[in-house]
Amino acid sequence: MHNNQPIGLFDSGIGGTSIWKAIHQLMPNEATLFLADSLNAPYGIKSKDEIIALSCKNTEYLLNLNCKIIVVACNTATTNAIKELRSKYKVPFIGIEPAIKPAALHSQTQKIGILATKGTINSTLFHNSLQQYQNVTFVEQIGHGLVELIENGQINSPEMFELLNSYLQPMIAADIDYLVLGCSHYPYLIPQIKKILPPHITIIDSGEAVARQTQKVLQETCGLHDLTTPAEQIFYTNSQPEVLQSFVGSNCKVFQKEF
Question: In angstroms, rounded to a whole number, what is the distance separating the alpha carbons of residues 224 and 216?
Answer without folding.
Answer: 10
